Amino acid sequence: MGDVNEELTRFVSRGLTASVRSFVIGVVFFVAGLVLLILTILSIAFIPLFGLGIFLTPLLTVGVRALANERRKLAGQWSGVEIPAPYKPRPPMESFGVIGGWQRCRWVLGDPATWRDLLWLLASPVTLALGILPASLVGYGVEGILVMPALLPYLDGYHYGPGWLIDIPFEGIVAIPQGVLILALGLATAPVLLRLHDRFTRLMLGPTRQAVLDQRVRVLTRTRAETVDAQAAELRRIERDLHDGAQARIVSLGMSLGLAEDLVTRDPVAAQKLLAEARDASDRALAELRDLVRGIHPPVLAERGLDGAVRALALTLPITVEVDIELHGRPQAPVESAGYFAVAEALANVAKHSHATHVWVLVRHNGRGLGMTVSDDGVGGADPMRGTGLRGIERRLAAFDGTVAVSSPPGGPTVVTMELPCELSSPKTLPSSGMG
Amino acid sequence: MRVVIAEDLALLRDGLIRLLSAYDFEVVEAVDNGPSLLPALLKHRPDVAVVDVRLPPTFTDEGLQAAIAARAEVPGLPVLVLSQHVEQLYARELLSDRTGGVGYLLKDRVSHVSQFIDAVRRVAAGGTALDPEVVGQLLARRSTEEPLKALTPREREVLGLMAEGRSNNAIAGRLFVTDKAVGKHINNIFTKLSLPPSDDDNRRVLAVLTYLNG
């Protein structure tokens, strides 16, 4: 019995919510949309006529877009129909004057999404109909149950019901089952119609294939430029490190050796001292080269893959790091390297800022790519906008369409979640299965 | 003493052969790739092997893997592993069979000839020779876990020098204390790490292993 009641309550509340929502979006977006549509058409017409349209059109477009964005948001919130905004990004423009107005006009009118928005406004009678239909059914049903039997004796010519006209007071009682049926129909169809409504909206307001591709190209262009810049900067750094470090030390080593060669018969003691200096220079050159190599591509990463490299790194940190990495195979070398440096950077951040005593590194392949999580028990409050470390991780991963998300409330804990799309090669190439 | 060498770069291989021969080692075989290393080690059972971590054909860590595999067959087979970089992780793996006779050094150390030869002899005798760089990484960590937490900073320093393979006498010289003081520190370390009484060399290896795993 309780189950049936619960079921009924859910059915009614779902139907009521959906019909109210449908009604609100139908009416509000119809009225607001109609006003904006008329104004926009007028202002576009005014562009050649009075020039006033140059200033009005972009302003009205802002209004149209706000309205459309609100509708997109509601579709996501109410029916789970995600509608991404399809607009082109704002190009650099003058802020004021006729030139600025003209540039803004060209920007908004040159964007097909603007015209699709207007088409959506033009179709708003359809959405109005879709919107008020369930609400009307519900309302009519309620009328049949409550209002009709009570009012019939007092009103002349008032009748109820599709098909069977009820106008004799006694028959008022028959209106009730009809009302119940109509109400049930309204409640049942309301959620379906709302979803249909939102699907229709996605058709009108969602990005076209072209727009999706355009957006993709924009993202790729940006990340490629950043990657190229970062690589060029990296090469410059390596060149400078080699030039000022190892190269200079090897030059001084050669000089020490040459002098020692000269002195070896005349002054063996001095020659010995020079040879010791030469050996020192070679030690330091090697140490610098080692550091440099570690920064370019850690040898242990080449030898052991992500798992071994992160474990080796964890051993050198002053905090307790628990490493849980389970990968059946290895990603491509550039992806593996990006993943390693992202985790290394995240761990370095933890060691530097978090005051944590424990860090957990979790890496899995989730079918689409590497999911990497670095969490700590530190003080939290890490701001992704401020830290250059996090920005660096983002740039590294973006080159491979990877992403990073940070959750770090004040007081902790901090959780850095990184995604790196890739495929794994067969585990046969894993070195650990080679020997021993 | 009979030595097997594994090094793929001809220049370094010849250098090592020349160096070791000059100090009265007999180089019984010098291989230049991973797959032929394990058979060579098992065939000659040398007094000590000097092995490069990274060897052909995959240029990853086959030298290390072959050394570990050989020691699984011949427990305690002395191996000195050389590399362009050192990792605490690899040191652990090498020492994990708890038998000693393990060295793990940067290739740079070869140029300090007498120290390098000392290290080869120490490893051949069943001792350890960990690179100061590995020990440095260990000292940089603030160990908060049992049983290393119980050690005083001085004892940790002594343990580090033990890991490098230095004698009590050398440790005393380095820390400007008497041999007797070093002996006392070492006994304290053994007690605090609760190492069962056995011969001194083996206890040293176990202490170093505890240190690496801490």
Gross CATH architecture of the largest domain in chain B: 3-Layer(aba) Sandwich
Poorly predicted regions of chain B: none
- Tally of contiguous helical segments of chain A: 11
First and last CA, distance of chain B: 35 Å
End-to-end Cα distance of chain A = 68 Å
The succession of helices and strands of chain B, N to C, reads EHEHEHEHEHEHHHHH
CATH topology of the largest domain in chain B: the name is Rossmann fold
CATH class of the largest domain in chain B: Alpha Beta
The profile of the biggest β sheet of chain A is: 5 strands, mixed
Order of strands across the widest beta sheet of chain B? 2-1-3-4-5-6
For the secondary structure, the number of strands of chain B is 6
- What's the pLDDT, averaged over the residues of chain A? 85
Q: How many structural domains in the coordinates of chain A?
A: 3
User: In order across it, which strands form the biggest sheet of chain A?
Assistant: 1-2-3-5-4
Could you tell me the strand content of chain B as a percent range? 5-15%
The shape of chain A, in one word, is elongated
In the CATH hierarchy, what is the superfamily of the largest domain in chain B?
Response regulator
